Each structure stands twice: as C-alpha cells, then as structure tokens.
Amino acid sequence: MEMIKVKNLTFEYIRRDEEGNVESINKAIDNVNLDVKKGDFIAILGANGSGKSTLAKHINAILYPTDGGVWVNGMNTAEEKNLWEIRQTAGMVFQNPDNQIIATVVEEDVGFGPENLGVPTQEIWERVEKSLEAVGMLEFRNSSPNKLSGGQKQRVAIAGIMAMKPQCIVLDEPTAMLDPNGRKEVIATVRELNKKENVTVILITHHMDEVIYADKVFVMERGQVKMEGTPREIFTRVDEIKKYRLDAPQVTELAYELKKAGVNLPDGILTVEELIEAIKLIKK
Amino acid sequence: MIRDITIGQYYPSDSILHRLDPRVKLIGTFLFIVSLFLFDSLYGYIAVAVFLVTIIKLSKVPFRFIAKGMKAIVVLMLFMAFFNLFFTPGNTIFQIWIIKITDNGLRQAIFMGIRLIFLILGSSLMTFTTTPNQLTDGLEKIMKPLNRIKVPVHEISMMMSIALRFIPILLEETDKIMKAQMARGADFESGGVLKRAKSLIPLLVPLFVSAFRRANDLAMAMEARCYRGGDGRTKMKPLRYQNRDYLAYTCVLAYFAIVIALGILENRLF
Amino acid sequence: MQIIFDKVNYIYSGGTAFARHAIKDISFSINKGEFIGLIGHTGSGKSTLIQHMNGLIKATNGHIYFNGQDIYEKNYDLRKLRSKVGLVFQYPEHQLFETTVFKDVVFGPTNLGLDKLECELRAYEALKMVGIGDDLLDASPFELSGGQKRRVAIAGVLAMKPEVLILDEPTAGLDPRGRDDILEKIAELHRDSGLTIILVTHSMEDIANYADRLFVMNRGELVMQDTAKVVFSHYKELEQMHLAAPQVTYVMNVLKDKGYRVNTDATTIDEAKEEILKLLQY
Questions:
Q1: Contact A179 C202 (CB under 8 A)
Q2: Which residue from A35, B33, C61, C249 has the fewest beta carbons nearer than 10 Å?
Q3: Which of 3.20.20.70, 1.25.60.10, 3.40.50.300, 3.90.180.10 is the CATH number of C33-55+78-227?
Q4: Average pLDDT, stretch C56-84?
Q5: CA B133 to CA A142: how far, in whole Å?
C-alpha cells in the first residue's frame, strides 16, 4: 500500500460576489495523480501559485477534493472519521516559522501535539526528548522560540510534528523565509529523518538545490503535474524547467550550457563534484 | 523603546521560586497584594520589605533586571505622589503661594509610593518566575470550577497563552512597519491630535492585516497538530502539588498572619 | 562621492542588560550611480547599517555625509534625506495599507508636501517603472500576487524620486522567475535612471551578475569592500563567516586545485563557461 495516493485530484476555489453568486471558478489543482511509497523522499517543485501548497493541504485534510481523492495510508481524507488519524499520520510543517510555534518554551511546544493526542504525561516527556534530539535541538529545550534563528525555529516545528510519531511529514515551503544557512540546516534535518527514522518526506519548495537528494521530483504548474522523475532526469531538461518559472542549480545550468556548446558531458549534472569528474574524464 | 519594558516578562532560572506550582504563586501574589492594605505602620512596611527581599533573593532574578522594569512606572508613581503630596489635608509644614505641603500629605505620598513599589515588585516577581504557559495552566486549574457554569475555561487560558506568545512578535512588527512608513516620509510625531490619529492608519492597517494572517496560519498549524479543544487532552506538565508547594503555602500564610497581627496591634497601640 | 561613512559605530542597549556593538567603526564611500551588493550572514549588522543611511537609526558615534553634508548637523532635514535615500525593507508588501494600488504609491510623495498633480504623476511613473500595468491601478493591493505586491511596495519608495535606492533582500520568498524579474527591474533602474543601488542579499549567484562592488559584513564589521571577483576569490574566508561563493567559483577553484590551468576569477555562468571551453579547447 502506498503511503500517499492522490488520484485524479481536482480542487476548485469558488469566488463569490457579495450576493453569493459565483463570480469565478479557479482550478487550483487540475487532475493530479501522485503515488508516494513508504520511506520515499519526494519533492514537489513549482512557482508561486502553481498549486503545490494547495496539494499539500489536501494530504493533511485541511482542504478536501472537489473531485478525485486522496488516501493517506489507505485512509480516505474525505471521510470525517479519519480526520485525526490522518493528521497524526501525515504531519505538516508550514512556511512561516513564527506562526506555527504555539508555546513560549521550546519543549512545551514540541509537547503540544502529543498533548492533543491524549498521550500519557510520562510518554510525552520521552517523545519530546527524542524528537528534539532527532532534530538536534535538545540543548535549546528550555529556550524561548523568539531567541532562535529561523532555521532553528523550523527544526523545532519539525520536532513538534515528530513527537506525534507520524509516518510521513509534509513540508510546505519550510525554507522560503530562511537564509542559506537556515535552509541547509532544515534540509539536512529532513534528510536525516528520512534516512534514520524512515519517515516519508514530501518537500514542497521552489529552491532547486534542495531537491537534488530527493528520490523523485514532481514539477507543478497551473495546478497540473508537468514533469516527474528523478532529480537527474528533471534537471536534464533545463529549458523546460525555466518554462515553468523555475531554474536549475547554477552548476547544473553551467553543465547544460557547456553541453549546448558541444562539450560531451553526461546528462543532469547536479553537484560541483560531478562536473569536475566529468571534465577530468574528457581531459584524459 | 517598547521592548525595554521588563514587566510581565519571564526570566529563565532554576530557583526554588521558578519551580513552585503556579497556583501557589498566583494565590500567594493575591494574598500579598491584599496584605499591603492591611496595615499602616512602620513595622508593617518592614515586615513586607523583609518578605519581599527574601523572595527576590530566592528567585535569583538579578535586582538590576527588576529595577529596569520599575523605570516604566516612574511616571505613574510621580503622578500619585503629586496628588497625595498636594491634596491631602493636614497640618501645613511648607507653603509657597497657594501650594502647601501637609504632614499627612508627605506621609501619604511616601507610604503610598512605597506600597505601589511593593505591589509592582511582588506581582512582577510572579511573572519573572513563571512562564506564561504555567501561568495560564495555573489559572485554568484554579478557575476549573467555573466550567460547571459554562465558562470556557480552557479556551480562555489557551487564548491568553497564545496572546502572550505573540505580543513580542507583534511589538517587533510594529517597530518594523513604523520604520518602513517613516522611510516613505510618514511622520508619527508632529501635529495635533487629529493629525496624529490619522497618521496611525498606515501603521495600524498593516498591523491588523498581519495579525489576522498570523492568526489564520496559527489556527491551521494547531489543527494540523490535532488540536480539538480541551477535551481528551493530556498535559506534558500537569500541575501536582509537591512538598515544597505546601511549604510555600505555609510560609505565605505565616506572612499573611503576621501582617494581620501587626494591623490589629496597631489599632490597639495607636 | 554621494555617501560617506566615517568611523560609524552603533551600540544597541535595550531589552537586555548587555549592550551590543551592532556595527563597529564602519568607514566607506559610495559614488553616485554605483551598484553595491551588501552581503553578510543573518545578524552581521547589515540591516542596522542600511538604516543609518537614511537616518532611521542614529549612530552612537561617527559621521555620515550625504552629498557632502553631515546628516547629524543641526537643522539637517532628515525627512528630506529619507526621500533622497529610499529604503525598501524586507517583505515590503507588509507595509501596504491603502484601498488601491495607486493610492498606496501616492502616500510617499504626499508626505513630501508636493502638490496633488505632481504626487499622482510620480506615482504613475513609479508604477510604470516597476512594470505594474494600468489595469491594476485601482485594484486592492491585498489582492495582488506576491511578486506584484512587492513591486507595488518598491514603487511606493520610487515615487519619492530617491537618488539612492536601498533594498533589503528584495527577492526573499519569491520563486525563481519572480526573483529574476525583480532583479532585472532593479538593474534597469540602475542603468536607465542612474540610481545608486545598494542591494542586501543572501544570493551570491545573483549579486555576482549585477554589483560593481561587494561590501561584506561580519560581526558588525565591514571586512571587505571590493569587486565580486576579488571578494569571491577569498571564498575560504567567506565560509568562515558562514557565507559562500557562487557555485561556479567553486568549480573553477577545484579545477585549479586538480592541476588544470584555469583562471579562477569567474563568478557568473558565462565567464565560467568561457574558461572551461578554453580549457577543453573548443
């Protein structure tokens, strides 16, 4: 069974005027299909307004499909009885680090989820400690969130989700408001959780350098999935990516330009090391 | 600027006072405030001062930090002192033109001032040593009986703790928006009342928009973490009285008894 | 020289018991029409520094000169300075407040006390400059997309007709195309209107394309002020300051370390491409 299954999902925003008549219908998601296996690291790329966040909110049952369906670990998100189990199974981290931390002390915030689930006190403490440890924030357990950097705040938010023992984490542009160091911190944390705790990860972003480690990348535009494949497959098609208001990591673009100029490089170079190796091969 | 106010802030430390049950501190603070109005003699003031100094020592909050918070209420104190000083009837001890200072006035001004300082010190000591969450937890538990008459105690305390979490964020945001508008030539300082009120619009509108956006985000984040009201919720830090709490209650009650005794004695003696 | 900082210090002492030396002994000068990139990791003092330039923060000591005048002199008109040195804060769309896009942009020039016609003309021009079409003038600023909102907010500052435009991370949170659009617009303003630009950014790849000089801040000090090529050649020192050089700089330096004869000062994709093609003899 897939961890997440999205089938023919369509979602329409209906705008009404003051009298309640339908003014316009906007298809935010247009017939999307998506399968995510347990333990996968999936990245969803897309420009602002491409529908990627709307898709994420369906996985957490914050929004419900207009048409089609979403299943989390076999549970249909449209059925109300599944609501809390779905939210516990697929935790969600949001963009703005300030607006998702509830408590004034780090450890109390991490405990918020388990408290809501009715976990016994003793176990809450164990979970909080383990989650903070997993994101490398244990030493800050008694700090005020206001004193932390953006990257640290996001790691606390991730710990807050981990304490609910989810099988899957959906991260909705978790790095959009962070500086490069904060971004690195968060992505490294997410990768580690994926590897060590075998948590399924769905990362939504428009930063290209964050997706190169993903197992699979989906590119969205205007509510549709336009490209899907491994990062290498996706970044082989730099021109197409640019069409969807995105770009490629600088080194990928450099390799792509060199290839266009006739240099015999392999497809989809993602890192500096790969490019160097390829050039070395040619020089031999 | 606004961020300099330390009243109501939490000062992290691991003192015995920090570890006390918030209910003890809430009830203790209440009794302390009541006690301030039960006496009117030098001995009373000494008793309160001794009690306060002991508590401050126990709290491990640096005195400088506390003193800084007091600066914010200097105006209020001067204001009170002014009224007491000049408008209390009694024997005149000093007079220029129609302004006269009476012995009672002087006495009142000094003692009321000291009382006010005690009051602020005592209550801010509670907030220095209690996290906002503990505070709301304590209030929630104390007010629990009100649940029976349909007062949404849990919701109120959740609202309070969220408000406390976001106050510093919104203050910072106010500062930022103010500067951004000043960079566009806005002037918040000059002009009459009407002009000044009008000049606040470019500050208040963005602030409200931002507060609503945050509220929206937060509500979503809370739901995503399975928040569904107080029913069936467990607590990470449930409130359970320890021995030290009973001891603290005893101390507070002893203090309270001493002050009452002093008050009664005074009436007999004077 | 348009802006001169002479040993400017700012010591921040509020909230905590500890005074913090936010910027230390900063001295530099910026010429009219220059494009400066200001880089430094979060908390290095960049934001504090730029707020000195238009007098929003007053230095603890040191002197700042704008067009030859000491801005701390008595009777110096700070509000006029703010109209000459336009400052666009981070996430500037959060300052929008009016009912329509046009009214919001008029706010700045109106504060300068200009007559109505002039204000509206300036607002119109400013909106044109950032590429906001006539169809959006009467829209509510809150209904626009993220990129559009940001451009309106930038127009709000441009309408004051500044000589210097300072932008604090104008591309934060935008998608790649939105980011390129804004940067192109800024480059265009620099090119066509002769504006002096000071751009605060975390993206080394972007700034390498545009800036004449880079200012590097670290722990409140201005540690480097030189061309992108020179600054990025110190990439190892930049890493110590939690910064990095563009990826292509790394490519060139690693190639050189491996014994290939390449020029390492490439900072853009085009330059790196030329160098590598030369190496591979194409």
A1: yes
A2: C61
A3: 3.40.50.300
A4: 92
A5: 13
